[in-house]
Amino acid sequence: MNKRRETKTVLVIEDEADILKLTSRVLELEGYRVLQAKNSEEGMSLLRESPISLVLLDLRLPGCDGWVVLEQMKEDTALSVIPVIVFTASAGVPQRERALSMGATDYLVKPLSAATLRKAVARILG
Amino acid sequence: MAPKFEILIVDDDVNLASKLQHILEVEGYGTAVATDDQTALTLFRQKTFDLAIVDIKLPGMSGVKLVEELAKLSPRMEYIITTDEASMESSVEAVGQRQVVAYEIKPLNMDHILGLITQVVERKQAEKRMVEYKELDKLKSNLLSTVSHELRTPLAIIKGYSTMLVDYDNRLMPDEKNEYLQSIGKATDRLTELVDHLLDLSQLEAGLLRLTKQQTSISKLMNEVVAEAKLRAPRHEIVLKLTNRLPMLNVDARRVRQVLDNIIDNACKYSSEGTQVVVSAQQVGSELQVSIADQGIGIPAEDLKRVFDRMYRFEQRLTPGVKGAGLGLAICKGLVEAHSGRIWMESEKGKGSTCFFTLPLYRYREPQL
Known about the structure:
The complex is a heterodimer of chains A (126) and B (369). Helix content of chain A is 43%, strand content 19%. With 126 residues, chain A is α/β, with parallel strands linked by helices. A five-stranded parallel β-sheet of chain A has the order 2-1-3-4-5, sandwiched between helices. In chain A, helix 1 links the parallel strand 1 (9-13) and strand 2 (33-37). The longest helix of chain A is centred in the N-terminal third of the chain and has 13 residues, at 17-29. Chain B is an alpha/beta fold and 369 residues long. Chain B has helices at residues 14-26, 37-46, 63-73, 88-95, 110-167, 174-205, 218-232, 253-269, 328-338; strands at residues 6-10, 30-34, 51-55, 78-84, 100-106, 214-217, 237-242, 248-251, 276-284, 287-293, 343-348, 352-360. Chain B starts with 5 loop residues before the first strand and ends in a 9-residue tail after the last strand. In chain B, 28% of the residues are buried. Classes of the chains: A alpha/beta (126), B alpha/beta (369). Chain A binds chain B through residues 15-16, 18-19, 22-23, 25-26, 29, 60, 62-63, 89-91, 110-115, 117, and chain B through 145, 148-149, 151-153, 155-161, 163-164, 167-168, 171, 176, 180, 183, 187, 316-317, 320.
């Protein structure tokens, strides 16, 4: 098990309780530290308070949606260097292109297996 | 009935104006006549016109100035400018491109003018249809996007937990595993419900839904429905009020149950725990009238009809935790109407809402063979 993972914190921003839970648990089992947020406000607030190594972002959040998080992160010098993996239930190519052009590092379509998730995170954080 | 196409005739030649008016009215257009600029402006402020036929040589303001003024009041109005041969060029220069359909030289060719107007009418109708199609398209797009999301979310839960249970089997606690298995079960139910709803809706829209009608005791049915509903929503106070002798109904019992379940679940979803949901039924004339009243936050008047549209959940921003795609009431409407009944919603903002529906009573005797 990669010891360095203990020092990496992943922020998961997701409004579906079950999906938030299972995503966080997989990451914990893989040795990462996890922070959770149910919406974009909570997410942005955590981003500004704590050192975060990776953001997992659900694009279809209620209220101000996930795209806004990408925008705000891009505009902030400190936050713009943090890698973001977006996940979403929409498979459209335009969505994918838009996410990548707005600074997302990777794009995953739900439903995901635990393996797909851990591999995507490992590719970025090791 | 489609609203009339309204035409304003502005000409100081009274005879010509009358003649034009008569011809246009015969064709079915609405008309108004102004023989000077001030009257034209007054009429214009009182009523909406689709087209104006304006004489460039008006006393007072002059046709050019009038068109300028009218254009300020209604930028999308269109004009036919009437002028004489001598003034044609200068008229065109003065008025320019401003929404002018044509410059007509006097003496006027009535057939030509009628032809021009028909073209304008057709063009405007086509524009209106485009706007409607675009709106419909947008609704369809939203619908697809919402359905896609609603389908993939439970699938994501099922896939996520099931792969976890396999990959991390020896590292998970038994109660965790149990919890995940239960979540998989619930997500499957959610998916099943959505699929059933989509199928029902498709059938209803294609006119393919078949009802299996039978003689049904509505009191028995409603008692059963309410008993089950209490189990599903134990924290709500669900009350059944039936008048004593309700007649038999010739209905598809399964579908009536579905309608009741759906409306009651809705009432519980959109009202707080501890509040009452009152289910009642009574005979009103030749119909059975059922009502389900909740003590929720109520629905604004302008939305009362829209709640029966597919995917309509106006309270999404107020109730973000509420799951579901919002197809339920649309299906209820389809099922009630398939029975030749009516369904509607009444509400008082802040106090609650009541959903009503009617079903025709069973009076008809099967012919004896």
